[in-house]
Write the structure tokens for this entry.
Amino acid sequence: MRRYSIGALTFILLGLLLLGINWGFLNYSESIAFIGYLFLLVSVVLGFVALFRGEKGRANVISIALFFIILLLIIVFKPLEFVRLMIWLKNII
């Protein structure tokens, strides 16, 4: 594993941690959810960079696959999560 692969796995773990903390709270925090989704997005970008740079190992493919699996689970179990976040972003911009 190289730098981009390790970075992708680190950011996906940080994103999952923040989203888990957010869902564990009684009050929903849009800023924590937004940062969690940004970490997930950064992880998939780093995964693709690692894939295109030809880094050896399976960590880059695992991080990309985990990103899509996490998004699928969010859509299945909390389908209005993205709508809520987009409305929040629209209101602050």
In short: The chain has four helices and no strands. The chain has one domain: 3-92.
